[in-house]
User: Fold this.
Amino acid sequence: MTTQPDYFSKYENLHFARDEEGVLEVRMHTNGGPLVFTGKTHREFPDAFYDISRDRDNRIVILTGTGDAWIAQIDFASLGDVTDPREWDRTFWEGKKVLQNLLDIEVPVISAVNGPALLHSEYILTTDIVLAAENAVFQDMPHLNAGIVPGDGVHILWPLVLGSIRGRYFLLTQQTLTAHQALDLGVVNEVLPGDQLMARARELAHQLAKQPTLNLRYTRVALTQRLKRLVQEGLGYGLALEGITASDLRNAQH
Assistant:
């Protein structure tokens, strides 16, 4: 496993590193700093997670951000004209594939949430172990701010994790949860000082890496089966409703 796969250098906003035990670290970034979510990342992340899922040299995956934020910023303009149904068709497809491909990573996945997770926090909720730095916060920031339905998977996974009433409140009020609140509510497994976060993620990854590879793979398959079903049932519908409200923004502009 000394030769790096081609996809390690394929994606501008992802840095990959894999050790001799097959622990793959995936770090999101923009120019080496905290990730700014853009149309480009929306297009490329589904392909990146697909590449990770089909690489059988990966035995554990750690997903993290860069600097003091997991994902806290978005460039709305780069996403294109979301009021155009043809543009939304692309968003619809990518929005489905990104979660499906995350869940198709058939090895344990650890989230190391290194700071505010204000958008696409649903990625975190597809993983098996969630570690958070003390400065991490969780919120669904972009949807209601843009006047559109939170239908990209947050509508499925947050009510599942928090419970139906708390999950709907979280989305409708754009509630911000601190790392310790998220721990108390069962969203996060451990809260750590920021300078200890990756060390703990690697410790857990190497603990898991002692297991036989097939056991790692099939345990992830067993643990994600229900999530896959819920995402398959509800994600396309949620994105369609989101697209309708995006189209309605054009009327609001006139």
In short: DSSP finds eight helices and ten strands in the chain. Helices lie at 39-54, 85-103, 142-146, 154-162, 164-172, 179-184, 197-208, 213-252.
